[in-house]
Amino acid sequence: MNWLPDLLNTYSNWLYSIGLSADASLFTVELTLFIVSFLLFIAIDKLFIRIVINYLKKFTEKSKTQIDNILFSNKVFDYFLHIIPVYIWLLFVDDIFINSDGIEAFVRGVMNLYINYLLVRGVLSLLKSVNEIYESKQTGRKRSIKSYIQVFQLLIILIGLLVAISIIIEKDISFLLTGIGAFAAVLMLVFKDSILGFVGGIQISANDMLRPGDWVSVPNAGADGIVIDISLTTVKIQNWDKTISTVPTYSLVSGSFHNWRGMEESGGRRIKRHLNINIQSIKFCTNSEIEEYKKIGLIKDYLNNKEEELKKYNSSVGNDGEYVNGRHLTNVGIFRIYVEAYLKAQKNINPEMTFLIRQLQATEKGLPLEVYVFSRIQDWAEYENIQADIFDHLFAIIPEFKLQIFQNPSGADFRSIIQK
Hints:
Distance between the termini: 118 Å
Number of domains: 3
Mean pLDDT: 80
Number of helices: 17
Structural class: alpha+beta
Helix content: 55-70%
Low-confidence stretches: none
Order of helices and strands: HHHHHHHHHHEEEEHEHEHHHEEHH
Oligomer: single chain
């Protein structure tokens, strides 16, 4: 640029000829050159970015992969492309400020800070894109790397801050690194949650304790719902009432929580409820009652086989038909077999998983007859419908076996007693 000094001298002499002092003329020349170069830089930057970005946009629209779309949406290309015009302008700073070293140093420092800012933002956007690309893959739905990405982002920000400080104070970055040990305790205190979250995130990922999309229950935090985000310091859970609970990552490792993923992967969802049967309604069945129960197709074969078995046993012990010292069918026993046969006939019940119709310890509220089976359907709404249909039937059918459900007396019961 040999022509530039001659042009600047001509401009300076003209300013001097119209009455400006030598210093004012020199300052005006450099200010004018700075304004013109800055406007030219803005124009070139806008034009360059627009041309390249438009080309990249057309390329991403034609591309079948989603990787370039994610990079484009996070403006990764924008930040890195902006560096090129800035760097080119920085090369010409020496030619612009020929006689003003102070202004040249200031402008050079500002431009270096801007380049540092663009690099940091570009790398942060790139790391964010890496996380989105990973989550879009099948493996990304199983394990989250967001906490690791955030750790790298934090390191990039710290490095960027150190570089910015070194530019401002005009010291080498190694000078800052030698004194960073003195701030270790402060950094540990400031970033305590981030460090604990990072450790917790490693444990969660290494042990496969939690994945986005898992149904979890965290009693201590009052959270019960689906994991929607696992970050460096927090885990976001969308509760079933559509509220969002934010739980510290480390508290999940140091405390306890329920993950229902095992249920979802097992192929069944547990139904565990019981009926409290009034003990006073339990009795031995008469022959006529047994004949009536044989009309029920689900238990007809069982009753025939059981009746033969009991007759042989009672004959072997010399029992002549009395209930004492013999084995006889009871209404609660027949009902238990009926419930078992009824549930096995239901297509929505998984017979290959735990299947129990059992009696629990009798209490002051009667004899609990527990249904412990697994539904094939795991969807919450359908599961509740299946469960309700089963117990609707059991509550309605139990009087057919001369049994009563235990229920604490209500005000209407007391009124009926008083009226009598």
